[in-house]
Amino acid sequence: MGQSLMVEKHNFTRLIEGTITSPKGFKAGGLHCGIKKKRLDLGWLYSDVPASVAGVYTTNLFQAAPLIVTQESIAIENKIQAVLVNSGNANACTGEEGLKNALEMRDSFARSLGIEHHYVAVTSTGVIGEQLPIDKIKNGIDQIDVSNNGDGQFENAILTTDTTVKNLALTLEIDGKEVVIGGAAKGSGMIHPNMATMLGFVTTDALIEPGALHVALKEVTNQSFNMITVDGDTSTNDMVLVLANGLAENQVLSPKHPEWKAFLAGLKMVCEELAKMIARDGEGATKLIEVEVAGALEKETAAAISKTIVGSSLVKTAIFGSDANWGRIVCAVGYSGKKIDPSKVTVKIGPITVVENGMPQQFNEALAKAYLDNELIKIFVNLHEGEAKAVAWGCDLTYDYVRINASYRT
Amino acid sequence: MGQSLMVEKHNFTRLIEGTITSPKGFKAGGLHCGIKKKRLDLGWLYSDVPASVAGVYTTNLFQAAPLIVTQESIAIENKIQAVLVNSGNANACTGEEGLKNALEMRDSFARSLGIEHHYVAVTSTGVIGEQLPIDKIKNGIDQIDVSNNGDGQFENAILTTDTTVKNLALTLEIDGKEVVIGGAAKGSGMIHPNMATMLGFVTTDALIEPGALHVALKEVTNQSFNMITVDGDTSTNDMVLVLANGLAENQVLSPKHPEWKAFLAGLKMVCEELAKMIARDGEGATKLIEVEVAGALEKETAAAISKTIVGSSLVKTAIFGSDANWGRIVCAVGYSGKKIDPSKVTVKIGPITVVENGMPQQFNEALAKAYLDNELIKIFVNLHEGEAKAVAWGCDLTYDYVRINASYRT
Fold this sequence. Notes:
The structure is a homodimer of 410-residue chains. With 410 residues, the first copy, chain A, is α+β, with helices and mostly antiparallel strands.
């Protein structure tokens, strides 16, 4: 059954050249309001009609002010119509004044749009512990025209140390209607599972109630954004929002809908691709690392081990140096905290089997080095204990990671 | 009571110029047997009489063969008389043949000393997954003369990527007798709590039963070796052994002995200093970082938070760059997994208060930078919730860490 749905998904789901404004009724843009010196620093997203919304937020106890405000707004009706994001200042560890500023940011945008305050979500990313220059943001809001779609500006305005914009879109069919899902994200450092340090925005014109949307987002986040790590640091500002405005006019989606799994697969594809773009653009990264752990008794075990491997500084530096240092991979398997039988473990680096039944195998070092010179490195671990599996993504640890973080006050 | 004992400890405990052979009846040495190209690679430690022994071992599931052999030896009588250590090869992930080699290494040394097999402990450190060149080791054993104390050779022979030897000794008085405790350690990479990736050897001429010695080692390890991290990777070969041969002729030590706490304090000082030497010599490190977390409700909370801070790549790179990036410290406090109240947290970088009640404080950046240019960086966090505290040690994350680990197959 799961198998046939996977086939179904591939029949209907199609990546398109698109962005978060590809679904019907969404517009987005960005501008420079003066928090950063030159680059765009204020992004906005707008839906023609209020949209069902679901969010996931950082687990860091020092949750930034805008996350508190956004969660309170969403709690009222589980619908929003607009999102305002600034970069360059995280509005985190800013106390009462920070909270006041986040509210002011939200209310100013709502006033200028003529919509209810709680229909606006706000978020911030950048330096921790400085007060938001709220006047600059209010001046920026005055310049926003939501009838004008600013091509790619939103994706640019939300970046910090990122080197590339991160977006994509796909279409699928539900009830014979075309449904579009678009996504944009930012994130480069302070990236670690548990709402990996990042911002993600997903839009869709699918018709779906907030409750079901939340179920879908939770499930998908645990297999995408929560499976990436850059440096093991979980930020104060992580947030992913999904907005679904219903303009595709499908029958209301819920877990009982016959095409629920197709929607879930589409949402997962968008979130997974965004997550991988973040990992690939990790600070200083030259390579994307994908670790698949299969044959586990429990999914949780597979997830923990894959995240431990992809988070190991020693594995990350070895991959930077194109060194097939399988001992470090095996070592990481052994300290993940999950109980497994070391004598059953198989490890492959790309196509090359380096460990079988816990024992090193002869392999061609030159071939391994050639494989490790690629930009995408896949590591496969099989525990040979069960059927569960998980995939995690990360990046190599390089001189540039040290350079960026030894000099940049975030 | 605890307070007065602390004073007592300082009255009696005195660091001396010494090593693991400073306690009565211990000898040690090292030689080159050919595992490494040139450097010493085989170290031995010998006690004139069988000594009470206690050990702690890695929690990594891929426990190396010599650790299995050593634990089996010790279990028989909880006494040993000799230790043999090779560097350059970890004898980890080596299966049946590895186990056979570890046994052969132990038995050969026992035979040459004319003592019972189970009076010898063995351990290995170096590359994972290659079989031990057992013939070279046996040739090396033939050259060992335990009547000849080889000054500093043992400490050298156990090193891998370490840049310095790590040893010290101290004396204290128990029952009016002078008791000496000496220590040696190695460790530079794959260093993370839970038997931090390292080897540690502590000798003493104190008279103490194995059971009490084990209690003491456990307690002390949790405040020393288990509180350091270099890169978050827990090795397959970590081990600390304490040998107590009783030649100081004090009354048998146990938790009921009036000077038990003084012994514990002496043992702790040796283990803590060795642990700090390892952290300071972390791969590529230029600075030792000490993080004290006080004011916790539970010791466990303080320990988890201090280890999270000192293990954060972003904190480590900031300190390398002498950047007073307190936001990263606060962020690490927030994701340690322990529940605390962010609005009560105080953070000091050396003498400079940077956060009070969870809010950033104005501080002089130039002074902060000057402080951060030191070789020992202290970070103080107070949670203002209780009385428990903990201290953890680590090092900065530098270009050299990346260089060493992108090129060195361990």
